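User: Quick one: structure for sequence A, then sequence B.

Assistant: Sequence A:
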Amino acid sequence: MSRFAYVNGQFVRHGEAAVHIEDRGYQLADGVYEVWAVFDGKLVDAEGHFARLWRSLDELRIAHPMSEAALTLVLREAVRRNKVREGLVYLQVTRGVARRDHAFPNPAVPPSVVITAKSIDRAATNAKAEKGGSVISVPENRWGRCDIKSIGLLPNALAKQAARERGAVEAWFVDDMGLVTEGASSNAWIVDAEGTLRTRDTNANILRGVTRSTLLEVIREAGLPISEKPFTIAEAQAAKEAFITGAGSLVTPIVQVDGVKLGDGQAGPVAMKLRRAYIARAREKAV
C-alpha cells in the first residue's frame, strides 16, 4: 500500500517527501513534534496533544502554522489517506527554511510542517504488553527544558540504542540525586511496596506526558492511591510493579529493572488493569 506524507501544504508520496537542506529542523533541531495514537481511525487524547504542541511552539517562539481546526483536518486526512485504523500520526513543526545562522531568521520565515501516519498491529503490541518488558538506567544528560517536546533527541536516541543492545524496551534517565526522571520516550511509573502508584511530578525536568495526564485521571476515578513522588532505581527494583506510558507504549508493564526481576517476573495486575482502562477511555473519547 502506498503511503502519503503531508509536507508544507501538500500530500505527496511518502517515498518522495522531502524538506529543504536549510530547514532549521534538519540543521539545528529547531523545531517541535507531537505524536497522536490512532484508535478506530480517530485521534486519541487530541486536546492534550494540541495544548502541548501550542505550548512547545510558544516556548521556542515558533509561529503556529495553522489553526487547531485546520490542523485537525490535515491530521485526519493523513490518517485517512494512509488507511490507518490503529496506529500513530506524527507531526513536526520547525522554524522553517533560512540561510544557516544560529539566531532566528529576520524577517521570520513560514514554519515547516511535516505529517506522517503509520499503522500498528494492536494485537501484537497487546501480546508484548502481556509479557512485559525490561528497562535499563542511564545517567540524565539532556538539556534543562525537557518540558518542551523538541526534536533535539540525540540523548534519547543514544539511550534507546543502549536499551536495545541490552534487550530492553526502554531506558530510564537517572538524575544527579539518584532519582528516575522519565524514559527516553515515555514516563516512568512504579507500584511501590505499599501499593501506591508513583510517577515523577512535572515540576521536575520531564516532559508533561499526555498519556500520563489521562492515566492520572483514570487512576483517580478508580480510587487508587497515587503519589507524584520520585523514586530511585533501588525502589523500582523493590516495587510490586512498574510500567511506562506514552502515545506509542500506551501503558506497558515492566518486569525487570537493570537486570533485577520485579515480583514473579510477570506483567503486574495493576498495570494490565490500567492498560485496559486507558484503552477503553481512549477509544471512547477519540475524535
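Sequence B:
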Amino acid sequence: MFGDSNAFSSFSVNDLQAAKEFYSEVLGLKVSDNPMGVLELHIQGNSNNIMIYPKPDHQPATYTVLNFLMPDLERAVDALIVKGVTFEQYHTEYLNTNDKGIMYGDGHGPDIAWFKDPAGNILSLIAQR
C-alpha cells in the first residue's frame, strides 16, 4: 500500500530565516521557499526534498533529524568548524567523541559527528564507507 507512495521528511524550526541562512550558507545546500510558507532542502541524490516548517512553540528534537553521508568525515568536520559550527561532545558509556566531536565506530558502528542547527535540532555527519 505505502511502498509505491512518495514520502518526504520534515522538521520544525523556530526561525525560518535563520534556518534558511544556516542550511544554504553554512551547509551549502540548495534551499528554496515553498508557497506553503516552508523551506525545501534540495539534496543531490534524494528524490524528494526535505521540508522545514516554522513552529512558534518549537522544541528541538532530542534525536538526530538529518544525517549526511560524507566521503571524508574529518575534512567535513574541519570545514564546518571553520564556519563556526560547534560539534557536540559526548562522553558516556556508549558515545565517546574526540576533541573535534567525532566518534569513531572502530568496527562497531559508523564514524559520526553530531551538531545542531540554529533551532537546536540535531544533525549528523556520517563517514560513508
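The first helix runs from residue 16 to 26. The helical segments are 16-26, 73-82.

User: Thanks, that's what I needed.
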